[in-house]
Amino acid sequence: MIKTKKMGKRLVVGMAMLMLLGMAGCGKSDEKKKYDTLDEMEVDNIKDSTPKNSKDASQTEKDNLQDIETDDEGYMTPEYRADNEDEAKNCKEKMIVLSGRKSDVYKVDQDCYYKSDKFVMYFKQGTVISGDAAAAVESVMERLEEMYGFSYDNLEHLTTYPWRRNYVSITNYNGINTDNKRVNIIIKPYEEGNSPEYTDDSVVLLYDKYLDMESGDFGYVIAGLARSLRQRQSGFMGDIFERGFALYNEEKLGREYNLPDTKMLQFIDVTEDQFNKNDVINDPKGLYKEQEEGEEKDNFMTFNYPYLNNYGYRFVSFLEETYGPEIIKKISDASLEYDYDYGFVDIELDIIKKAAGDDIFDKFSNWLINDWDNYIKDYRDYLNSVTAD
């Protein structure tokens, strides 16, 4: 996250007026600069998707004329308000008010939350968040729904993952979104060297620094929201497919937003134990099953997650590049015809073949031989072109 410039404890009304007058002539260019890494469509989407809890223009104008408070680090002092909905009557935490402006950066001094129609964002104390964070999340969710013909409102396949107990506390956010109709997005202060990402159909766990929409780290947000959306459509399709879907969108939608994501190179420059292309070419279906079933060690199932990630990234890239995004909906719809749960890899393979054809894995093997290198060259060329400046 980019901190706002330290402005001291208070700015008097007169200075705020002068600043407004001085900025009047350059407001348009500043707004353009703020979003110049996005195409025009996404800029409009973000501007038009200002969340309901944000202040309207007239209120924002009044606020600009009032004193602006910052802490010793230069962060703006958050404003909170009570939640009057019935579900919040026993909730001790309050809702944070987000301005919708990227330039407004807050450091929350208490656990709080933000609600929209599609999600609830839970901010842990100490989280740094910009005023446009909710609008950025809303924009990605709408774009993913549009791309795949899916809806986050699909609640038929929600699981009962105990995210409150695991990530906050059973006493926190009491009554909020207990039915998981909205996606739960838990935001924690950034911790160097740790990786808190977790995603299922009802929860996405992220660090605050990932919510900067002008950074490649925003790819984590895209990946989490993509996986949550897919898993709301049908039963769990296994780690290879679900992880691959998330990674594919982290790359592709990140490119659409013009966010060079160099960490995707870790799924390209891989060691043999992370992914052996020749093994997959020789027996793509057999290796798929072997990796999904894992290995039992000391009465505990273990999985080679780098292999799952790398296989999944390539497999879903092949599916979407060959058949288009509609293949994901075909696979999701086909899975609804089966009564299965986690671990039935043979059923997952049958679902994929039912949607894409019995020869799908032979086609995948040929794609790895003939098209993967060109696919990666295209991504490297993109990274080089946007990082050269």
Describe this structure in words.
It is a single chain. The strands form 3 sheets. A 7-stranded mixed sheet has the order 1-2-4-5-7-9-8, covered by helices on one side. The chain has a two-stranded antiparallel ribbon with strand order 3-6. The longest helix has 19 residues, at 305-323. By secondary structure, the protein is α/β, with parallel strands linked by helices. It is 45% helix and 11% strand. The protein contains 15 helices and 11 strands.
Helix % is 40-55%
Could you tell me how far the N terminus lies from the C terminus, measured between alpha carbons in angstroms?
21 Å
What strand order characterises the main sheet? 1-2-4-5-7-9-8
- How would you describe the shape? globular
Rg calc? 23 Å
Mean pLDDT: 82
How would you characterize the largest beta sheet? 7 strands, mixed
Q: Which band does the percent of strand residues land in?
A: 5-15%
Helix count? Answer: 15
Q: How many strands appear in the DSSP assignment?
A: 11
Strand and helix order: HHHHEEEEEEHHEEEHHHHEEHHHHH
Given the helix and strand composition, which structural class is it?
Answer: alpha/beta
Outline the low-pLDDT stretches. Answer: 1-67
